[in-house]
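Structure first, sequence second, as always.
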């Protein structure tokens, strides 16, 4: 027996959200196919403009807006009735515009982290049917968001994603020195968030666990520990439908546990990645004397002080297959990848056909 997942007015047969993965690791193709197979597909908004036909090297923000609308259209071509949303990072300079583009383009959900999405309901107010889902790593962050949303917009989240800094890929919502210390309690936080909404607001908010979910056992553990669903990132990278270049996927297949570690992003947050080439990632921008081509982040150590590297272009290069100077984000379980399969196969492994009668 498989319980589906309902967020706002949208329901899917399987309790799986595919995590937004920028830059263009989860584009229309991956999100569309996840939605087609009964999960929630999420397009990562970050940096989409860099690949758009409208981008001329100077109009990043305008290109980004149109590229997101185009990407949503392509995803719905794959899954016309699917549940497809957009991941919008609070830390990006054009956050407000990206949220509006997501709503205009027909996103059914907006999942938003990398900062606290305190004004998200205001940005989406003309689209009340769009479900709003913050990503947090602590009960305190969930409380802050709920209080602000209720006070200013008389609205509460439609679901909350709790992302585990010890396992998730990409930017992490915890100080680097606290990551991997064993202090963080992923499912304690999941239950804490649920209890907070129950006790304070008398509300059953779906709570989604993100980070470290690779196989059926991890999924069952998450559900047994109190999550209503899971958000999976890395496992979907090694699918045929994932939008990244094949060599990005091969990097997952080739890496060992020791190759995965933390980098410090110019956004001021730690990030989990395959770290072996981080000196080349940095050196490329120094050698070419590249200076902030896109102004993509509100606060950026590279833009402000030329520290570290230009992240959106480093992620873009990796997506295109530059394994030397591209930044390869991944979760702590990426080393488990041993083959490239299809999205359908991932769903069949997570939810064996024999158990689906009740769907
Ligand atoms: C390549 C990659 C890129 C990511 N990009 C984003 C992003 O743009 N925005 C975001 O909120 N999370 C991002 N994440 C986090 C995922 O959405 C997801 O929550 C996380 O990876 C879950 O952990 P898992 O990879 O162990 O399944 C990224 C993760 C990966 C692996």
């Amino acid at each position: 027996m498989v319980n589906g997942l309902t967020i706002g007015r949208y329901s899917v047969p399987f309790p799986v959200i595919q995590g937004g993965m920028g830059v263009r690791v989860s584009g229309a193709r991956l999100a569309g196919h996840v939605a087609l197979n009964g999960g929630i597909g999420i397009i990562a908004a970050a940096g989409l403009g860099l690949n758009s036909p409208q981008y001329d090297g100077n109009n990043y923000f305008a290109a980004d807006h149109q590229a997101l609308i185009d990407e949503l259209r392509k995803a719905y071509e794959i899954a016309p009735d699917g549940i497809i949303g957009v991941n919008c990072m609070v830390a990006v300079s054009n956050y407000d515009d990206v949220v509006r583009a997501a709503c205009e383009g027909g996103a059914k959900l907006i999942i938003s982290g990398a900062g606290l999405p305190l004004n998200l309901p205001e940005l989406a107010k003309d689209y009340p049917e769009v479900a709003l889902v913050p990503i947090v790593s602590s009960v305190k962050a969930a409380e802050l968001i709920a209080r602000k949303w209720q006070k200013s917009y008389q609205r509460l989240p439609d679901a909350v994603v709790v992302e585990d800094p010890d396992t998730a890929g990409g930017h992490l919502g915890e100080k680097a020195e606290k990551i991997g210390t064993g202090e963080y309690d992923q499912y304690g936080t999941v239950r804490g968030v649920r209890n907070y909404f129950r006790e304070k607001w008398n509300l059953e908010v779906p709570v989604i666990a993100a980070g470290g979910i690779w196989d059926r056992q991890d999924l069952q553990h998450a559900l047994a520990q109190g999550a209503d669903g899971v958000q999976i990132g890395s496992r979907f990278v090694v699918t045929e439908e994932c939008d990244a270049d094949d060599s990005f996927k091969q990097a997952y297949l080739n890496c060992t546990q020791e190759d995965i570690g933390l980098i410090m992003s110019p956004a001021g947050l730690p990030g989990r990645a395959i770290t072996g080439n981080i000196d080349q990632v940095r050196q490329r921008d120094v050698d070419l004397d590249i200076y902030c081509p896109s102004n993509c982040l509100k606060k950026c150590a590279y833009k402000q002080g030329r520290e570290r590297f230009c992240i959106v272009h480093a992620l873009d290069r990796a997506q295109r297959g530059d394994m030397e100077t591209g930044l390869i984000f991944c979760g702590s379980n990426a080393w488990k990848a041993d083959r490239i399969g299809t999205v359908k196969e991932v769903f069949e492994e997570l939810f064996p056909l024999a158990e689906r009668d009740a769907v």
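Margin note: The pocket of flavin mononucleotide is lined by residues 19-22, 25, 44, 46, 87, 89, 113-114, 135, 163, 167-170, 210-213, 231-235, 329-331, 333 (CB under 6 Å).
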